[in-house]
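User: Just a sanity check before I run the rest of the batch. Below are the structure tokens for the first item. I only need the designed sequence back.
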């Protein structure tokens, strides 16, 4: 039996908990309800139908008390009064809102619903969809863990939920993982949708398994689905990636005969494929057909052809296409400018390159490491080492970290002017700043030493290369 002093201490602790509860948002809500009339006899009857032990446990959690049993045993009169007070207030809310007592109690405490497995599942799947739709999911391990959790849910998520995850992992270019995950879904008896099969087909095409891509098309038809533009665009992309442009053209013709009009993405894929195999003229003709067909051409199609023209040293044609692109209201982006600046610098057309750089500044298109590396490389090859160093300095001032290409271009510039000490300093600076030299960097420096009769230094670098993971070739 508790001594009088212990009982008094218990009273103090219990009053503190009661006061804390009454000052909480839940307690204030109950006090507000208490001020309104209610059927006392009915409320008391409903209140006493609940187990006192369970009630005191919940009160204990709300008031952050450490021991629920202590609330029910110390100073019994006070505790019973507190529990009875608490339950009657909730009963008033139940009558008013026409809800079962337990449902309302869960709403007030915010615990039961959150701890419900089904509620947790709904919230988790919403989080999955949000991350996939916003494309904020960039870690494949995290994505795979989420997918594994989905596989162990009961009931299983819908195929739409799985499609979101498969699409997100495919965007991360982990194509084999997507194929493996699809097999797991299939083993659980979940029927794929057209979206699922399109994602699977896309992965096969990127992995150069075009035959499997076409087998997925057969599955789509077998299941009674109709292939859509995404289905056919995937196959066209797969054919173009394999260099089967003629096959891609035949597939487009087949699409049109079956009532599928190619869209801008279809033609853009064709343009990209044609440019990759050097058929720039055919790509331009296709682009003109697209314009005549009232397709809403995007920047990607123009950028692809401009880049291909510049690589084919057809810079004038590239500039003409730039003007045409602007006349249609499509403004060039950083990719467009980089392709053109590279093409102009290859010809030594500084005035035109400077004009584009000024245009970039006016349109607030910030140059990146590729833009400035192009300039450093060209200036060094033209013997304008001072200007190249100034561009290099501007990069660092703007917080644009030079990469291996940038450093290698500057090292080459020093070697061309027989300034081997400066070349070595730049090489060492690259290493100190955490930018690892590659095979080209070593070759430039070794070549510079050999031309300046520094055979010993060249041999030292040559012997160092295997230790740095370089694979030497003849």
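Assistant: Here's the designed sequence for the first item:
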């Amino acid at each position: 039996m508790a001594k009088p002093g212990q009982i008094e201490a218990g009273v103090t602790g219990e009053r503190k908990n009661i006061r804390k509860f009454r000052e909480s948002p839940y307690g204030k809500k109950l006090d507000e309800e208490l001020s309104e009339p209610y059927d006392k006899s009915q409320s008391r009857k409903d209140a006493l139908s609940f187990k006192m032990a369970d009630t005191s446990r919940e009160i204990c959690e709300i008031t952050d008390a450490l021991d629920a049993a202590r609330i029910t045993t110390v100073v019994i009169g006070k505790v019973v009064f507190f529990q009875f007070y608490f339950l009657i207030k909730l009963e008033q809310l139940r009558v008013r809102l026409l809800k079962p007592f337990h449902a309302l109690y869960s709403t007030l405490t915010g615990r039961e619903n959150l701890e419900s497995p089904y509620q947790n599942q709904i919230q988790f799947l919403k989080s999955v969809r949000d991350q996939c739709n916003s494309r904020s999911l960039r870690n494949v391990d995290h994505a795979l863990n989420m997918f594994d959790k989905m596989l162990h849910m009961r009931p299983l998520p819908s195929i739409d939920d799985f499609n979101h995850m498969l699409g997100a992992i495919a965007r991360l270019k982990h194509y084999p993982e997507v194929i493996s995950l699809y097999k797991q879904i299939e083993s659980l008896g979940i029927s794929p949708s057209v979206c699922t099969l399109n994602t699977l087909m896309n992965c096969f095409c990127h992995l150069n398994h075009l035959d499997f891509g076409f087998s997925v098309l057969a599955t789509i038809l077998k299941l009674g689905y109709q292939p859509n533009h995404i289905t056919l665009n995937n196959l066209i992309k797969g054919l173009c990636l394999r260099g089967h442009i003629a096959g891609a053209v035949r597939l487009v013709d087949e699409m049109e005969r079956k009532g599928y009009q190619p869209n801008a993405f279809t033609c853009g894929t064709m343009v990209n494929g044609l440019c990759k195999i050097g058929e720039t003229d055919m790509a331009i003709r296709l682009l003109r057909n697209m314009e005549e067909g009232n397709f809403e051409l995007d920047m990607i199609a123009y950028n692809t052809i401009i880049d291909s023209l510049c690589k084919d040293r057809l810079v004038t044609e590239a500039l003409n296409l730039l003007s045409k692109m602007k006349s249609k209201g499509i403004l060039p982006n950083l990719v467009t400018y980089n392709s053109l600046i590279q093409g102009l610098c290859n010809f030594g057309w500084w005035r035109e390159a400077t004009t584009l750089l000024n245009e970039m500044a006016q349109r607030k298109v910030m140059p990146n490491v590729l833009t400035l590396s192009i300039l450093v490389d060209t200036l060094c090859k033209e013997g304008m080492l001072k200007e190249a160093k100034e561009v290099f300095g501007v990069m660092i001032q703007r917080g644009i970290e030079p990469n291996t290409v940038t450093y290698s271009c500057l090292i080459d510039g020093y070697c061309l002017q027989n300034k081997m000490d400066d070349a070595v300093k730049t090489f060492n600076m690259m290493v100190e700043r955490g930018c690892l030299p590659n095979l080209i960097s070593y070759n430039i420096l070794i070549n510079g030493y050999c031309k300046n009769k520094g055979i010993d230094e060249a041999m030292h670098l040559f012997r160092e290369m295997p230790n740095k993971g370089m694979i030497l070739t003849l």
